[in-house]
């Protein structure tokens, strides 16, 4: 599975042909029972087929009509099963490659006597200890209990760069099917074979164990209820028509029923669900359940770790504040020279700032002595002749210059304060006992993140930054990044308490985390996303795993969740709005023979009663196929407030659903009468 | 249509608009158990009532407890009324000496008044003793209305509260609805009616000698008092057989105005009280707007259809400027009859001041369709509000997903359980209306009761079951409904329309009350703006109305087109 894999097209033969075959396999009524609307359609199709055969046998002249109605009813069912088959087929290709990695696994199990024995991976049990050496595949999900190794996890993540897995700490989790590249590690198996991560992934991608999600269940109830109502309406019409002296054939009532019941959304419902999971997989996120994807759409508050999500994670030099009598360029040059020997990211950022924004050329001078940065001295610098340039923590620099904090020049102290107040870290620069100025190190907020938070706010989602920084620093970064709230000096307990508090107030929370100490909060959150590089505990507690281990992914996950729900809602609205036009096509057609005055209701000017009924049935079937791409792709989503989204979707799918079938049925009617189909 | 006609209509709606807020706020206080200006007078009586009946007013009930109390109370009311009607001959205040009612008619009538339908298969002045009218029918007029209000308040609380297992106390809500809302208003309105000339006496009738020398028996009775609660409680069961078309029940344009005003005021104000109690008055106004748009459209279509007149009659020389005056009282005219017809059916009142069956095709279609929309415009007292809330929940569910969140209404998530019960409730009307109509239309003895041949006959049957299942009570006219078949099946339709509908509604209320009320955000589906109003109207029409279209096509719609084509049956 590769990260940049594009969604396979509908017309990809590798998906298309198996899907057509599956569409027929899925006609089995026992399987269709899961989908009441399409099940009813199939029963009706069977009844009309029997009538068609009777018409054929009796040579009644109706056979041409009932045959065509029967055929299109079958197409309606087939298009619905085809939609589901295509959605499943797109996931299957991915699942197949995963399965290959799984089938041939063998394990070297460490017996109680200390000897290893070779067993198939499928016979491993939780608690077994296995040894995996360089070049071997890890037989199952587990935890490194001894050793360090580099592991190629590209089979799962699509990321070819190896990752380090070691015992203890937050990088101890390993996944079955991934390959050890160097060294040997001892692993304790923590997951029963068959329910491992890869197994779950395969099951989810294939949609085999797809449980209906809560919202899907509620929607199915609505659709079944509507089906029942319309079933009832059609039976009653038969009686009412009898009063008026009209004998309605079962064929036309069947046609009316199938066009009125919500076959469009009924046929596409499961495809939408599968496609939603699939979209998540394409984003390299694995959800443990469809429920989690839905919950993502409902999220009210995002808990985001500052480091890596909001900021780049390293403090970087952003400014030079020169002491009186020192030019900024002078300070920049001194800071540059003093930082050449500092290999830490901060040191390198000083070099970058001086040579970049301040345009100081790289010095070519020979140095008399180079003092590297160490954790004890917290200083780096060089000696060049008389000059003894040093850069480092403020107190260390003051000590180097032979000053105490009280005796430092006022201007210098003011600069230090100013940097600290804005949440930055000040570094001092000195030449011997002369203080040259202060370097402003700060957490750099990722470009574009503020706009994303603004978009989230428009969607009604609050962002909360979680950081271990002190409140001053946290507040400064929070305001720069534009988050709604922050949690400073946050411990895992603080996070958990915050989540509980928000949930008490009826809000849904999403967060991501990777450490074992994040596990309780991940479990408590409504959407917990664990990093693939995280610990096994975190991955177990979460309901999604991000294979790319990118904390910003949370935002995309929310958007995918919303898109899934929006697609369902839009197609439901469309499907229900369609009924208006279908009534106007079929009702006059049913009764115009008895009451010629009713031709006034034939607003579409359809050619004949039979062609009107047939056209409505054909439209009803074709609209399912026409909407398969939309069901798989999801409706267009742009972050905005609920009111704006509703207005737009109501216009497109509500009004569109009202108007489109009038035009569609009319066009089909023209074709039907031009081809003399009835 | 005339300007004066439209002015009359507009002024009435304006008057109702003015009363919505004060009456709504008052009712919100009453049902929140707060003190009102009537507490000094009624508080003691209220407490005494609880003490005598052994009710602890602080003890709240779960949805099931509340519903069972309501069902028990309604059953007791039914049994008492049934017995009273059967034994009428042995009871006092029977100056005309009317006999007891036959069992099927007593069943139909008792069900009719307990369900707030007030369908009348009897002729009031020729069947009912004063005792039956006063102690039986009028009492049920109060109690069935109070029951409806109590249920609506329980559903309101479900949406106002967060994580609470109870919905209030049925006995308390019912008592407060009667004591603080219905009784005081009924007294005021009854006195106003007396001032307008409605009789209020215990005398049976007077016999007059007409100019031609014939003897005419003029029925009298306690009309004003019954008329007041008939409208306030959206009951609609008149003292006289021809209801508010009778000159003693509705003598003048003013009394007609008060009739319509009284039936609209409580139902509309209760929606405002809902907004107040859930802490979002805009929500109340949004629901009222949706109701108003549909109701006023109904008035306009009826008024238009009736002013157009009947082209067949025009062809034989009737002045088209008169419009269709068939079935209308000259003292009310087109506008006030159209207004009355739409309002009485948009509400589940069912009183009539003209015969809907005599309207033109479209003119008769509107009252029928307004009932079929579920009696939510603004519907019966209480029942209209909870019916509307079901539509609101359905709207939120269908379209709410389009904003990318699990649908929620007023912070309550709408999930599988709510959907299940909402669909059960929504099933009831088509089941009862279309089911019974289709069966009756196929049974020769049932068709024999029809008064007119052709599609109008089907309209008569369809209207009867529509009115019964919608708990409206108005009649199309023409159908001879006092037969064992219609008495029984209409009775069943009324029971289904009231109780089979409200039990699932209460189950939804129970489930919603237990849920956390999540705070609104920019991502929440806004349910108090014009967009939602439009959506709600669409859902009412498509999910509530569309399934009746085939039946309507075979009745009033074909009648209309046949009239235009000059076809008679």
Distance between the termini of chain A: 51 Å
Strand fraction of chain A equals: 15-25%
Characterize the overall form of chain A.
elongated
Determine the strand fraction of chain B and express it as a percent band.
under 5%
Mean pLDDT across residues of chain B: 93
Total beta strand runs of chain B: 4
Inertia-based shape of chain B: globular
Largest interface: A-B, 76 and 68 residues
Radius of gyration of chain A: 34 Å
Rg of chain B, alpha carbons: 23 Å
Low-confidence blocks of residues of chain B: none
User: Spatial order of the strands in the main sheet of chain A?
Assistant: 10-22-21-20-11-18-19
Distance between the termini of chain B: 28 Å
Biggest sheet of chain B, strands in spatial order? 1-2
Query: Structural class of the secondary structure composition of chain B?
Result: mainly alpha
**Percent helix range of chain B:** 55-70%
What do the pLDDT scores of chain A average to? 86
Number of helices of chain B: 20
List the helices and strands and how they pair.
The complex is a heterodimer of chains A (678) and B (569).
Chain A: H1 13-25, H2 29-32, H3 36-58, H4 63-103, E1 106-110, E2 116-120, E3 129-132, E4 142-146, E5 148-152, H5 154-157, E6 163-166, E7 173-174, E8 179-180, E9 185-189, H6 197-206, H7 214-243, H8 250-260, H9 263-282, E10 285-287, H10 290-298, E11 301-305, H11 306-310, E12 311-322, H12 328-339, H13 345-355, E13 369-371, E14 379-384, E15 387-393, H14 394-401, H15 410-421, E16 425-431, E17 434-445, H16 449-458, E18 462-466, H17 471-481, E19 485-487, H18 492-504, E20 509-513, H19 519-524, E21 527-531, H20 536-541, E22 544-546, H21 553-591, H22 609-633, H23 642-674
Helix pairs in contact in A: 1-4, 3-4, 3-8, 4-6, 4-9, 4-22, 7-8, 8-21, 8-22, 9-21, 9-22, 10-21, 12-13, 21-22, 21-23, 22-23
Chain B: H1 3-31, H2 39-53, H3 63-86, H4 103-114, H5 124-127, H6 130-160, H7 170-195, E1 205-209, E2 215-219, H8 223-232, H9 253-277, H10 281-308, H11 311-315, H12 333-346, H13 361-372, H14 383-400, E3 408-409, E4 412-413, H15 416-442, H16 444-447, H17 455-469, H18 484-513, H19 530-545, H20 549-564
Antiparallel strand pairs in B: 1-2, 3-4
């Amino acid at each position: 599975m590769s990260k940049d894999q594009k969604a396979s097209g509908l017309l990809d033969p590798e998906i298309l042909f198996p899907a057509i075959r599956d569409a027929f396999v899925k006609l089995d009524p026992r399987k269709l029972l899961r989908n009441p609307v399409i099940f009813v359609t199939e029963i009706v199709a069977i009844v009309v087929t029997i009538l068609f055969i009777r018409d054929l046998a009796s040579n009644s002249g109706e056979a041409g009509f009932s045959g065509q109605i029967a055929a299109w009813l079958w197409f309606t069912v087939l298009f619905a099963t085809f939609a589901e088959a295509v959605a499943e087929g797109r996931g299957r290709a991915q699942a197949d490659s995963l399965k290959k990695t799984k089938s041939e696994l063998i394990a070297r199990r460490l017996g109680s006597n200390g000897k290893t024995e070779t067993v198939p991976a499928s016979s491993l049990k939780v608690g077994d200890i296995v040894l995996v050496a360089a070049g071997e595949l890890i037989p199952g999900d587990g935890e490194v209990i001894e050793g360090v190794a580099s592991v190629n996890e590209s089979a799962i993540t699509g990321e070819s760069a190896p990752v380090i897995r070691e015992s203890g700490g937050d990088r101890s989790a390993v996944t079955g099917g991934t390959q050890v590249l160097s060294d040997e590690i001892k692993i304790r198996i923590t997951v029963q074979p068959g329910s491992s991560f890869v197994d779950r992934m395969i099951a989810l991608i294939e949609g085999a164990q797809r449980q209906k999600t809560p919202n899907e269940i509620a929607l199915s109830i609505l659709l079944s209820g509507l089906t029942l109502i319309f079933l009832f309406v059609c039976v009653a019409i038969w009686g009412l028509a009898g009063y008026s002296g009209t004998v309605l054939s079962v064929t036309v009532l069947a046609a009316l029923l199938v066009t009125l019941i919500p076959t469009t959304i009924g046929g596409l419902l499961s495809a939408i669900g599968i496609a939603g999971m699939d979209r998540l997989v394409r984003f390299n996120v694995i959800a443990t359940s469809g429920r989690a994807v839905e919950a993502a759409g409902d999220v009210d508050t995002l808990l985001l770790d500052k480091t890596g999500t909001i900021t780049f994670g390293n403090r970087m030099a952003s400014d030079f504040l020169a002491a009186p009598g020192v030019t900024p360029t002078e300070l920049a040059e001194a800071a540059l020279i003093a930082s050449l020997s500092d290999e830490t990211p901060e040191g390198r950022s000083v070099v970058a700032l001086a040579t970049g924004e301040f345009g100081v050329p790289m010095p070519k001078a020979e140095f008399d002595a180079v003092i590297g940065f160490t954790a004890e001295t917290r200083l780096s610098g060089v000696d060049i002749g008389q000059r003894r340039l040093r850069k480092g923590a403020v107190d260390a620099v003051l000590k180097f210059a032979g000053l105490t904090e009280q005796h430092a020049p006022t201007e210098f102290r003011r600069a230090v304060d100013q940097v600290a107040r804005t949440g930055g870290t000040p570094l001092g620069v000195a030449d011997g006992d002369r203080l040259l100025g202060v370097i402003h190190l700060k957490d750099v907020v990722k470009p574009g993140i503020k706009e994303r938070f603004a978009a989230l706010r428009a969607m009604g989602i609050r962002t909360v930054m979680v950081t271990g920084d002190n409140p001053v620093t946290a507040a400064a970064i929070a305001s720069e990044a534009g988050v709604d709230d922050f949690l400073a000096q946050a411990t895992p307990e603080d996070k958990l308490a915050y989540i509980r508090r928000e949930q008490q107030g009826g809000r849904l929370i999403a967060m991501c985390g990777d450490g074992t100490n994040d596990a309780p909060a991940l479990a408590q959150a409504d959407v917990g996303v664990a990093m693939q590089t995280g610990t096994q505990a975190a991955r177990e507690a979460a309901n999604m795993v991000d294979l790319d281990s990118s904390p910003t992914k949370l935002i995309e996950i929310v958007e995918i969740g919303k898109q899934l729900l929006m697609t369902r809602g839009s197609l439901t609205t469309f499907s229900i709005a369609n009924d208006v036009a279908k009534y106007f096509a079929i009702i006059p057609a049913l009764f115009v023979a008895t009451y010629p005055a009713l031709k006034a209701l034939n607003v579409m000017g359809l050619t004949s009663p039979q062609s009107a009924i047939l056209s409505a049935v054909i439209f009803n079937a074709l609209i399912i196929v026409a909407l398969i791409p939309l069901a798989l792709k999801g409706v267009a989503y742009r972050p905005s407030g609920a009111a704006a989204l509703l207005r737009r979707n109501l216009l497109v799918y509500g009004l569109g659903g009202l108007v489109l079938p009038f035009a569609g049925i009319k066009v089909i009617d023209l074709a039907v009468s031009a081809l003399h189909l009835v | 249509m005339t300007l004066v006609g439209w002015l009359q209509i507009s002024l009435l709606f304006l008057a109702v608009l003015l009363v919505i807020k004060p009456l709504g706020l008052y009712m919100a206080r009453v049902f929140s158990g707060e003190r009102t200006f009537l507490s000094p007078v009624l508080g003691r009586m209220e407490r005494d009532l609880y003490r005598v009946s052994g009710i602890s007013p602080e003890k709240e009930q779960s949805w099931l407890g509340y519903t069972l109390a309501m069902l028990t109370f309604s059953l007791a009311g039914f049994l008492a009324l049934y017995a009273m009607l059967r034994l009428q001959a042995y009871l006092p205040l029977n100056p005309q000496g009317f006999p007891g009612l036959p069992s099927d008619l007593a069943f139909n009538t008792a069900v009719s008044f307990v369900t707030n339908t007030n369908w009348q298969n009897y002729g009031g002045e020729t069947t009912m003793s004063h005792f039956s009218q006063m102690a039986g029918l009028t009492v049920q007029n109060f109690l069935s209305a109070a029951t409806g209000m109590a249920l609506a308040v329980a559903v309101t609380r479900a949406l106002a509260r967060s994580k609470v297992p109870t919905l209030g106390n049925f006995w308390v809500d019912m008592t407060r609805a009667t004591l603080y809302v219905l009784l005081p208003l009924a007294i005021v309105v009854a006195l106003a009616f007396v001032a307008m000339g409605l009789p209020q006496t215990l005398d049976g009738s007077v016999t007059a000698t007409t100019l031609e020398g014939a003897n005419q028996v003029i029925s009298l009775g306690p009309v004003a008092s019954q008329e007041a609660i008939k409208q306030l409680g959206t009951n609609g069961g008149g003292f006289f057989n021809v209801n508010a078309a009778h000159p003693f029940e509705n003598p003048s344009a003013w009394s007609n105005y008060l009739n319509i005003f009284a039936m609209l005021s409580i139902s509309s104000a209760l929606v405002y009280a809902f907004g107040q109690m859930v802490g979002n008055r805009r929500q109340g106004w949004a629901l009222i707007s949706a109701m108003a748009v549909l109701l006023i459209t109904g008035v306009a279509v009826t008024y238009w259809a009736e002013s157009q007149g009947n082209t067949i009659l025009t062809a034989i020389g009737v002045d088209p400027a008169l419009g269709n005056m068939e079935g209308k009282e000259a003292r009310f005219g087109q506008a006030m009859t159209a207004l009355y017809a739409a309002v009485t059916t948009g509400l589940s009142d069912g009183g009539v001041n003209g015969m809907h069956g005599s309207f033109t095709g479209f003119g008769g279609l509107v009252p029928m369709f307004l009932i079929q929309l579920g009696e939510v415009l603004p519907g019966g007292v209480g029942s209209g509000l909870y019916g509307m809330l079901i539509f609101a929940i359905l709207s939120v569910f269908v379209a709410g997903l389009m904003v990318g969140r699990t649908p929620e209404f007023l912070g309550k998530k709408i999930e599988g359980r709510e959907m299940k019960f909402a669909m059960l409730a929504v099933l009831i009307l088509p089941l009862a209306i279309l089911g019974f109509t289709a069966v009756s239309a196929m049974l020769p003895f049932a068709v024999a009761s029809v008064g007119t041949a052709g599609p109008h006959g089907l309209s008569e049957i369809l209207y009867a079951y529509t009115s019964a299942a919608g708990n409206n009570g108005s009649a199309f006219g023409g159908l001879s409904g006092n037969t064992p078949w219609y008495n029984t099946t209409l009775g069943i339709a009324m029971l289904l329309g009231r109780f089979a509908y409200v039990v699932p509604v209460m189950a939804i209320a129970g489930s919603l009350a237990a849920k956390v009320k999540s705070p609104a955000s920019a991502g929440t589906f806004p349910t108090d703006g014009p967009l939602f109003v439009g959506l709600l109207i669409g859902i009412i029409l498509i999910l509530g109305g569309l399934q009746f279209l085939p039946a309507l096509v075979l009745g009033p719609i074909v009648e209309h087109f046949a009239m235009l084509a000059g076809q008679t049956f």
